[in-house]
Design goal:
Layout (H helix, E strand, L loop, with lengths): L1 H20 L8 E4 L2 E4 L6 E9 L5 E8 L6 E3 L6 E3 L4 E8 L8 E9 L5 E2 L8 E9 L4 H16 L9 H23 L14 E9 L4 E7 L4 H17 L9 H20 L3 H22 L4 H28 L4 E2 L5 E2 L5 H6 L14 H16 L8 H8 L2 H26 L1 H27 L4 H21 L3 H32 L10 H4 L1 H15 L5 H13 L4 H26 L8 H4 L6 H19 L2 H20 L4 H4 L3
Parallel strand pairs: 2-10
Antiparallel strand pairs: 1-3, 3-7, 4-6, 4-8, 5-7, 8-10, 9-10, 11-12, 13-14
Length: 665
Amino acid sequence: MKIKLTLIAVLLTPALAWAQQVPTGPAPKLEVAPRQVVLSSGTQPGAQTIALRNVGTAPLEIRALRMAPGSEGWQITTPMPAQTLPPGAQLQVRVAFTPDGKRRQSFGGLQIVSNDSTQIDDPHTPEIDYTTGVSLRAGSSWLLSLMVFFPLLGIPFLFMVPRGKEHLTRWVAVAAAAVPMVAAIYLYQHFDPNWGVKNGNSGLQFIEHAVWVRSFNIEFYMGVDGVSVMMVILTALVCLIAVGASWSVPLERSIRGYFTMFLLLETGMMGVFCALDFFLFYVFWEVMLLPMYFLIGIWGGPRKEYAAIKFFLYTLAGSVLMLLALIALYYNSAPTYLVDGTPASHTFDILKMAYANSYANVPPILGINFARLVWVGLFIGFAIKVPMFPFHTWLPDAHVEAPTAISVILAGVLLKMGTYGMMRINFPILPEATTWASVGVAVFGVINILYGALCAMAQKDLKKLVAYSSVSHMGYCLLGMAAFTGTGMSGAMLQMFNHGTITSMLFMLVGVIYDRAHTRGVDEFGGVAQVMPVYAAFFGLAFMASLGLPGLSGFISEALVFLGAFPVFKVMTILAATGVIITAGYHLWAIQRIQLGPFNPRWESALKGHDMDRREWATLLPLAAIVLVLGFYPTPVLDTIKTGMGDLVNLLAHGQGAASIAGLP
């Protein structure tokens, strides 16, 4: 009985403490309308009137009206001294926006300081100031929300398709994936490659910023910059092409469920590359996990359950480390303001964590440097996704058992989430720890390059060979990132994009021959080029691009990585360059065994007269065009990312606490 009473007392203590804070007598209460001011244009001046009303039972003291830090371009046009509003009274406040001629979007917050104790006390001031925030925004953009959430709108329509017409579900999925692709084209055309941190808005464009969960300082914050814009475009492209590759999934295998998981997966991946609130980033990261588990576990090969569980456990282990790091960073962040000016004791805002905090000064945890401990936790979480040796063992199993389209998604997009996470989270938020760990990152990059290439050379399953080649090629990204040079960083980002297009081609080509022969054994074929010349042409192009042939996109990104890394890591760059020889070896070996030599008569009925069809042409041709164009002219990508990469390199060079540079409060 005593134990029960003690437990009840413990559970009720927070509620009783809260109840003691609730006013029992007459009290003022501030009502603000509207709580969000939205002006349609960020390049034209505008104004809005805001009404403040006392809906309480005691006089309301309006002690101050002020603009929140970072509210450039916004001002209060009706100067107002402190005054008291009796119950039921109201007053009008007018705010105006004057554009600076540069930004297409501008954000601010109006802070109303009063004696309404139901509002939030400002941690920035020693006195008790209860502050209410009003969000101010000039220039709206819903493009990223369209790209992230439109695939979800396609899910209800999948279940509206009548029974017996399941083939129409494929076209519903095409439509749901095509809209983000069209939006991605618009994004690329209207993205300003010269817009950086020094120009304002922390270097971001197409921003969507609003308070989501006020009590926990969580914001709905999305935007793109040079670090993320090409990954957003890559995700839209690969997902649309993967829908086309999903035609090989039989209709009778619950095709509605398959595309439901597929579209949910696209939302999760797209959200990861757009999110700028760490909590929102983590939500999208976890949203991605479940559909991939089911896509492998239900629609995969003979060992699908084993591969799905292995993928889930590895990724979940990384997610736990990321969650612990997220909590640690949040509770050690400095007081700031939400986008609407509401005071916040801590923040999940990734840009504020990077520019307005210095985690190097946080006390150690159990005698271990805080920043380094958190950095390692985050790094392992992202390294599992890369995948980096020794956390790579889930990848070959997942690739081999996954359907063709899911292998395309896995290699084309999911692996990039790991290196992107390092660039977006580890590097800017913990630059001192990143500098401390740079040599280790480079070492693991070289290990990935050589180990992955050697493992690929030993494979007799074509799909597993391509899977290990991905391990090797992602090592170039790690090496380029670790150098902290503009050339190395740009090479790493270009390698992420190029690998996404090349490896998508490779896995689709594996799927083409598997759909006909139902085997992937490298030694089981021979002379395929004689009966499938179009397939052989695409096969040769993709494999030559993957091995880094000059004139194709794989070469230029690897060359930039070497150019950027050599001044910093001479020996490791030389070792990594030897991986190019091994890579050429296993690629040429695969081409020789499969495409050249005498034709194996065993496959005459399966392959002869069954060259690539129009659907396979349609999925491979755009990727082939990108591989060719970027091989000779990589400028469209390099120009797009140069400013974002430059800002990241500058942040690493100068450390944290540069809030004024980014225009952050």
